[in-house]
């Protein structure tokens, strides 16, 4: 059975804009955080759900599917009992990490609090 992610926003590139293209891939409330967390070894569904307390199960599932469809992450199923699934950043997805790092640094610099959030390292 094929799982086809249905995007809430349509593919939209007015004037063939590279910024809009990038936002189609990583845009949304949760994708940058999900990418950042997967790259810091919080790469299992339950761990992501536990760390991003504000996200619903359905939204997390949809965001992961979109990132997988776009080739940013890969889903690895381990043949164990019980089954274990992990997500990893693909080589293509790693090309986005400088953008995610810049977003993280900018946010840390401009946030009005020094409290650690769910995006911070373990």
From TrEMBL:
One of its GO terms (molecular function) is DNA binding. InterPro entries: HTH_HxlR, WH-like_DNA-bd_sf, WH_DNA-bd_sf. Residues 17-115 form the HTH hxlR-type domain. It holds the Pfam family HxlR. Gene3D superfamilies: Winged helix-like DNA-binding domain superfamily/Winged helix DNA-binding domain (1.10.10.10). Keywords: DNA-binding, Transcription, Transcription regulation. The keyword Transcription regulation applies. Signal peptide: none annotated. PANTHER family: TRANSCRIPTIONAL REGULATOR, TRANSCRIPTIONAL REGULATOR, MARR FAMILY. This is Transcriptional regulator. It comes from Chryseobacterium mucoviscidosis.
């Amino acid at each position: 059975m094929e799982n086809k992610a249905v995007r809430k926003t349509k593919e939209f590139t007015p004037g063939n804009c590279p910024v809009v293209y990038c936002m189609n891939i990583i845009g949304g409330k949760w994708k940058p955080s999900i990418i950042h967390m997967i790259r810091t070894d919080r790469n299992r569904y339950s761990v992501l759900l536990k760390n991003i307390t504000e996200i619903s199960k359905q939204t997390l599932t949809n965001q992961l599917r979109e990132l997988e469809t776009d080739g940013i992450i890969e889903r690895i199923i381990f043949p164990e009992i019980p089954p274990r699934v992990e997500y990893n950043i693909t080589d293509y997805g790693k090309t986005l990490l400088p953008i995610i790092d810049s977003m993280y640094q900018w946010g840390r610099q401009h946030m009005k609090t020094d409290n650690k959030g769910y995006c911070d390292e373990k």
